[in-house]
Specification:
Distance between the termini: 29 Å
CATH superfamily: Alanine racemase
CATH architecture: Alpha-Beta Barrel
Radius of gyration: 18 Å
Helix content: 40-55%
Oligomer: single chain
Number of helices: 8
Strand order of the largest sheet: 7-6-5-4-3-2-1-8
Shape: globular
């Protein structure tokens, strides 16, 4: 990255983050919530370590990766920057069982536990290393065939089994909304919140994290109770238009 390109990106990241924070705060206020209740995760899967460093300097503190090999590249790439030792990385993508050992112990949160089998596999590998992984349970609230995750009914039936696994700690739920469908997104995010409320009552778990909302619909997600939004294009792509 040439010097002038870096300067332009640095300026863009700072200004764009300010605009995103303003929109997040406005959405929280509309819902009677504090903006401090919502964590912004910068999805860095399409950029390199240098862009992550610039994003950190612009004020981002949490990043999301969807592939273990890309997570490895980012962690190795920022080793030369001591100030980034406090950077948080989450795994947000579909996690294959043969890649679990590349992730556990390196991320703060795994968002995409989409089946009992995957939860058991993470638990087994984490317990073998004396670890306990914080995870979110991925729920296909919208019912779209193209999306992974538990159905709400499946999750209710699986909670006792999931809570009995030693190597994981269930911290909340995650979902993805239908693309380009504001009404569908709102129903999806509302459904996730209502499911979390029901599961809290049934299990006693806090389920304090609701990971929902992306670049196109994060404002709706915040209005419907999201505590963590996953933002990629809106953060890193100058061509993405704010709405």
């Amino acid at each position: 990255m040439r010097g002038n390109e870096q300067t332009e990106l640095d300026s863009f990241l700072v200004e764009r983050r300010k605009a995103i924070c303003e929109r997040m705060a406005a959405a929280a206020r509309r819902a009677g919530r504090s903006p401090d209740e919502v964590t912004m995760l910068a999805v860095s899967k399409t950029v390199g370590p240098k862009e992550v460093v610039l994003a950190w300097k612009a004020g981002y503190r949490a990043f999301g990766e969807n592939r273990p090999q890309e997570l490895k590249r980012k962690l190795e790439g920022i080793e030369a920057y001591p100030e980034l030792r406090g950077a948080r990385f989450d795994m947000i993508g579909n996690l294959q069982t043969n890649k679990i050992n590349q992730v556990i112990g390196k991320v703060s949160l795994i968002h995409s536990v989409s089946s009992v089998h995957l939860a058991q596999s993470i638990s087994k590998r984490a317990a073998a290393r004396g670890l306990r992984c914080d995870v979110l349970l991925e729920v296909n609230v919208s019912g779209e065939k193209s999306k992974a995750g538990f159905s709400p009914e499946e999750l209710r039936g699986a909670m006792d089994q999931l809570m009995g696994l030693d190597g994981i700690a269930v911290r909340g739920l995650m979902t993805m909304a239908p693309a380009h469908d504001a009404d569908g997104a709102r129903r999806t995010f509302c459904g996730l919140r209502e499911l979390a409320e029901a599961l809290r009552a049934d299990t006693g778990l806090g389920l304090e994290v609701l990971s929902s909302g992306m670049s196109d619909d994060f404002h709706i997600a915040i209005e419907e109770g999201s505590t963590l939004v996953r933002l990629g294009r809106i953060v890193f792509d100058p061509g993405y238009e704010l709405r």
